[in-house]
Amino acid sequence: MTDAPNFNDYDQPIGPALPDWKPRAQPPRTPVSGRYCRLEPIDVERHAKDLFDAYATAPDGRDWTYMSGGPFPDFDSYYAYATKLAASTDPLHHAIVDLETGKAVGTLALMRIDPANGVVEVGHVAYSPLLKRTRAGTEAQYLLMRRAFDELGYRRYEWKCDSLNAPSRRAAARYGFTFEGIFRNAIVYRGRSRDTAWFSITDAEWPAISRGFEQWLSLENFDAQGQHRAGLAALIAAARA
Q: Is the dihedral of CA 162, 168, 169, 172 positive or negative?
C-alpha cells in the first residue's frame, strides 16, 4: 500500500515530499557482528580457504546454477574468484563467519549501491551446506538489513533473482520482502536469458520486519534440540499486523 498522492499546482498527483532528505553514506568496509555470525569484508588470505572448503561439502554443483560464477573444481580457481570479490567496492562482498567455529561458511554482498536515493540491493548470496538452514544464515541477512536501514538510513532494500530460482524466491518471502514483479529478458548470463524477479523492503516496513527477525533469533525461540518454536515468516506477519 502506498500513501495517497499529493497534488501540485496543476492538480497532478505527485509523491510525498521529502524536505529533509540527504544522500546517504556508502556502506563501510567494516565488520558487523551478531549472536551467531559476523560479517566481514572478504579478505582472500583470511577467508578463501575456509570458503572453498565449505562449498566443497556440497555433493554437486547445483548451488551455482543461478550464480554468475562457480562451481570451482580446485582451490586455485576459487582463490582467483575470491580475489575479484575482495577487490570490488560495488558489489561489496562479505564473508559470513560462523562464530561457533570461527570459519567463513558463505558470502553475500551489498550491490547497486545508490546513496543519492537511499537504495541498495543484497545479492551474490552463496551459502554453503554448513550455513543453510542455520540461525547464522538467517542472522547474516538481518545484520546486513540492519546496517542498511538503521545504521545508514537507506529507504529501500532490494532482492533480485532469476525468476526460475524457486529457493531464492521462497527465501525472499520468508525474510519479509514484497514481490514486485518480473523484468523479462533482463539479463544474459551463462549463455542463457534470465527473467528477473524483483522484491523489496522499504524503510516504513523495516521496523516490523526487524521485530520479527529479533524474535526469531532470540534464544527463547529455540527448544533444547535447537528447533525454532515459531517461524520467521509468521513472526514477521504478526509484527506487521
A: negative
**Domain extents for the chain?**
26-240
C-beta pairs of 1-10 under 8 Å, 24+ apart in sequence: none
Which of 145, 105, 104, 107 shows the shortest CA–CA distance to 124?
107
pLDDT at 75: 98
Distances (CA, A) of 136 to 13, 98, 240: 45, 7, 24
Query: Looking up cell 559476523, which residue turns up?
Result: 38
Residue with cell 552463496: 126
Count the Cβ atoms, other than its own, within 10 Å of residue 99: 14
d(Cα 64, Cα 68) in Å, to the nearest integer?
8
Q: Give, for 202, the enclosing helix (H) or strand (E).
A: strand 192-202
- CATH superfamily of the domain spanning 26-240: Gcn5-related N-acetyltransferase (GNAT) (3.40.630.30)
pLDDT value, residue 5 = 81
- pLDDT at position 2 is 57
